[in-house]
Design goal:
Layout lengths: L2 H19 E9 L10 E4 L5 E3 L5 E7 L1 E9 L6 E7 L3 E6 L16 E3 L11 H6 L7 H5 L24 E5 L2 E2 L22 E7 L13 E7 L7 E7 L2 E10 L2 E11 L1 H6 L5 E19 L3 E20 L2 E26 L2 E18 L2 E21 L2 E19 L6 E21 L2 E12 L4 E13 L4 E12 L3 H4 L8 E14 L2 E17 L8 E17 L6 E15 L15 E11 L4 E10 L3 E2 L10 E2 L3 E13 L2 E7 L11 E3 L11 E3 L8 E10 L12
Parallel strand pairs: 1-7, 9-12
Antiparallel strand pairs: 1-4, 2-3, 2-5, 5-6, 8-11, 9-10, 11-12, 13-14, 13-38, 14-15, 15-16, 16-17, 17-18, 18-19, 19-20, 20-21, 21-22, 22-23, 23-24, 24-25, 25-26, 26-27, 27-28, 28-29, 29-30, 30-31, 31-34, 32-33, 34-35, 35-38, 36-37
């Protein structure tokens, strides 16, 4: 046999042996719902043997025989699959891939929560919406009142949520409590939020079932998150029909400082617009603020925000039952507030937050010759640690300390002052774990504890929430929890031995987001216990009161259907009853509306460089008690109706003109009645209706930004 023939036979024999030892590896790749996954990368690690799955998820390839090899399946969005297999004979492997966890795209607990930050996945309003919503007049609270779950109370201006009073909503800035979040005003005149909306980059508004991090709020919490470092130096000027403001920012490499001042005087405005109340001195206010931002080690950021403001007004009021006689009511408010916090990353998996606030507030009332002073001192310090145990488990825990003192001083003009006061120290601690089983399911469980030195008692609050996300961009959320709150200051100074008031929340919500559309529906039940009861003038306060509230909230927002248009619809149904304070029986409280509707529309006209905004609000008639009637709370007020409009015009890139008018159609809104303390000769309690200061409110302003980048304007802070 020739040498060439020998070589050929050897090669053929070797090839035949190789074929004899080749192994077939086959199988199918499915997801957790048993659906095939096409296009998976299937291979033996460290070799060139492999293939891809077909449309049915099937794969098949050959490999050289070996004792063992690592079999790998990879596909984007799923966890890699690895298995050591023996390559001795034909191998069949069926694989189920688990969805990879992605915190950014994972489900979030949304029951009872409305985020308003641009980067908030639960967002239904962004920061810009707050200042462009018609009727809100640049007030955060005003914009939030267009969301479901709130009740319309035109005479208050504060948040009434899920059948709760305004005192049941807690306000926080960067997680730190604000003891006095609203301005002071005369009786039956609406207040405003005390803080400029341009301060905040995002807002978390919870209508219930909120985190164990927050306490002392039976109905809801409003968490305002301040801006980070500003990009460049600027000077902002505002000239308005009611006053003026100015703010300037100086920046350096690692920090910035912003100083601001504002002045308001309604005298010129009220001299042009007829008022329902007589004014000796129209509302006037002067304020100043200072904001400091400084980067620190550990990727930290220190924020300090301080304000000082004062306001005064004097009103001439007609006496109920005798309109020819009047009394003079004057109010002077002084408020000082400082909030500071630091956030730093101690390591890859640990974040630490430290913060504190201090509030000083006095309200000096003068009713003819009678002088009254309300004085509040409040402070809050807090530490919060956040630990990422792994990608699917996050824990947060912290401690905090609250201090509050309140004093009411009355000088009747005869004799010494009458003084009632109290002081309370309240340590608290909380812990909460967030556990993701997958991208589609999360559970959040928490526990909070507090102790009041004044009440001499503690409370423990369990909190539980969970959410499940479906494949069609929708999710279901549940929330449950106990929520405690101190009685209000006027009750605590009675020195009666009162207990915490308590609310128990049950919330179920459905949310669906698709492109630029958002649908949300929420069912809730809230049970009240230990509400303060005041049976009579000569009897002590007790905690024998109770109540409940349940309802349905519906929200729809659409930014897609109408070109350059954006609108949202909200509807709330509420059934609430309470037996508390001096109520002789259970009844719907006077601040609760059974039905609330808001329709908000905004349209950008490119050719006109303008945005038109409109808000239509409706609140069904509220219950009202007429002492001339036998039945308690059997009278209904008129329904609240208002159509509000605003117009924003971008004159230049750095100059904005803004005009707004409330209640354009002139609806006759009434907010209740004041009754005479004693009946007349016919046994009738005379009354006067509580009306808004005027049917309409008009606002015109010009806002100018001066910066090196001439195209910047004041709305850039919100984008």
């Amino acid at each position: 046999m020739s040498f060439t023939i020998k070589i050929a036979l050897s090669l053929l024999l070797g090839f035949g042996l190789f074929q004899a030892e080749a192994q077939i590896i086959s199988g199918k790749v499915l997801d957790e719902s048993n659906q095939p996954i096409p296009g998976c990368n299937v291979y033996l690690e460290g070799t060139f043997y492999g293939t891809s799955t077909n449309a049915a998820g099937y794969f098949k390839f050959d490999a050289e025989a070996a004792d063992s090899a690592t079999f790998v399946v990879e596909f984007l969005g799923f966890e890699d699959y690895r298995q050591t297999i023996s390559l001795q004979g034909e191998v069949e492997i069926n694989v189920t891939l688990k969805e990879a966890f992605d915190k950014l795209n994972a489900v979030t607990v949304s029951a009872g929560s409305y985020g308003t930050g641009d980067n908030d996945k639960t967002a239904v309003l962004n920061s810009l919406d707050v200042v462009t919503t018609a009727g809100a007049l640049g007030d955060v609270t005003g914009a939030l009142q267009t969301l479901p779950g709130t009740s319309t109370n035109g005479e208050s201006g504060r948040l009434f949520v899920h059948g709760g009073s305004a005192d049941e909503t807690g306000t926080y800035i960067d997680g730190i409590l604000v003891h006095q979040p609203y301005t002071s005003s005369a009786p039956n005149m609406a207040v405003r939020g005390r803080f400029n909306p341009f301060m905040f980059s995002g807002t978390a508004f919870s209508t219930g079932g909120y985190s164990a991090e927050y306490g002392q709020a039976m109905s809801s919490v409003l968490v305002l998150n301040t801006n980070e470092l500003q990009e460049e130096e600027s000077l902002n000027l505002g000239i308005m029909t009611i006053g003026a403001d100015v703010a300037g920012t100086i920046k350096w490499k690692t920090g910035a400082i912003t100083a601001s001042a504002n002045y308001m005087n309604l005298s010129p405005y009220m001299s042009l617009i007829p008022q329902n109340y007589g004014w000796k001195s129209a509302p006037e206010a002067l304020g100043a603020g200072l904001s400091i931002r400084q980067k620190t080690a550990n990727n930290g950021l220190l924020k300090v925000y301080a304000t000082a403001d004062q306001s005064n007004l004097t009103q001439e009021q007609s006496l109920v039952g005798n309109p020819e006689q009047t009394q003079t009511v004057g109010l002077q408010n002084n408020n000082r507030f400082i909030n500071t916090n630091w956030k730093g990353q101690l390591s890859k998996k640990w974040i630490l937050k430290l913060g504190g606030s201090f509030t000083y507030n006095t309200d000096d009332y003068k009713i003819n010759t009678i002088a009254l002073r309300d004085k509040l001192l409040g402070s809050h310090v807090k530490s919060l640690a956040i630990h990422e145990v792994n990608k699917k488990v996050h824990v947060r825990f912290g401690t905090e300390f609250f201090y509050k003192s309140y004093e009411k001083r009355i000088n009747s003009g005869v004799g010494a002052d009458s003084v009632n006061s109290y002081a309370d120290h309240k340590p608290a601690a909380f812990a909460e774990a967030e556990i993701y089983t997958s991208n589609t399911f999360v559970v959040k469980a928490g526990l909070r504890g507090e102790y009041s030195t004044y009440l001499e008692m503690a409370n423990i609050s369990p909190r539980l929430s969970m959410a499940y996300k479906t494949k069609d961009h929708s999710q279901f959320s549940l929330a449950y929890g106990w929520f405690y709150q101190d009685p209000v200051n006027e009750q605590l100074i009675s020195r009666d031995y009162l207990n915490y008031e308590k609310a128990e929340h049950y919330i179920f919500s459905f949310t669906k987001k698709l492109e630029d559309r958002n649908v949300r529906a929420e069912l809730y039940y809230k049970g009240y216990k230990n509400l303060v009861k005041y049976p009579g003038k000569n009897e002590r306060y007790t905690n024998d009161g109770n109540g409940y509230a349940y309802g349905l909230d519906v929200y729809f927002r659409d930014k897609k259907t109408i070109k350059n248009g954006d609108y949202w619809l909200s509807y709330s149904y509420l059934k609430a009853e309470r037996n508390y304070l001096d109520y002789p029986t259970s009844a719907q409280p006077s601040f609760a509306n059974s039905h609330n509707i808001s329709i908000v529309y905004k349209h950008w006209f490119s050719a006109l460089r303008s945005q038109l905004g409109a808000t239509l609000s409706y609140g069904s008639p509220r219950s009202h008690n007429n002492p001339n009637n036998i039945q308690f709370m059997d009278e209904k007020l008129r329904a609240y109706k208002s159509l509000d409009l605003n117009w924003s015009f971008l004159h230049r890139e750095n100059i904005i003109f803004h005009a707004a008018v409330s209640n354009v159609l002139g609806f006759n809104n009434g907010f209740g009645y004041n009754y005479s303390p004693i009946p007349d000769a016919n046994g009738t309690y005379q009354r006067t209706e509580i009306l808004p200061a005027a049917k309409h409110f008009f606002f015109v302003g010009c806002f100018i930004t001066l910066s090196r980048h001439g195209a910047r304007n004041q709305l850039d802070k919100l984008n």
